[in-house]
Design a protein that fits this description.
single chain, about 200 residues, alpha+beta, four-stranded mixed β-sheet, 5 helices
Length: about 200
Amino acid sequence: MFGYACNETPEMMPTAIMYAHRLGRELTKVRKAGLVSWLRLMQIPVSIRYENDKPVTVENVVISTQHTADVKHADISEFLIEYVVKKVIPAAMLDRNTKFLINPTGRFVVGGPEGDSGLTGRKIIVDTYGGWGRHGGGRFRQGPFESRSLGCYMCRWVAKNVVASAWPKSANYRWRMRSAIRAREIWIDSMEPQDAGRCHCAGV
């Protein structure tokens, strides 16, 4: 079970997953407010270009949203780019090379269990750090008190506090916690100079 934090954003999350989360919240707000009648649930990956370990530009925004059968693809693209993406992502992070990929595989009318059956809880990387942090597998959604959930939440809390406290850039930290049931150990990875402001935390 792993937690991750970095100082790129106020949320202490990587920039790409932070923008993906913000876009998801905005799209949910639009859908629930009924601003457009065709919008359904969606998936939103975001890609960021870095220079000298700093996020400088959004390279790709992909929005795959389920929709009603009567809406045209051009209308979906125009609305999502102009009224959602450009509202959420600052203009300074967009340039002429930024690609907006709206429903790139085509129509997405049938969704949910009817269109994509399978096991639940598979999108663990999407749920956490967008691939930046290590992950031990195991889904979070079995309940807030399930051991894998608690371990990941605890490790995330530790990682956030390490980054927020601005501990020395290059050091090894090991924190041991004991419970009444069994021993627990949490390691905080060494943060080398190039990783300043980032922290992985592993719980066993």
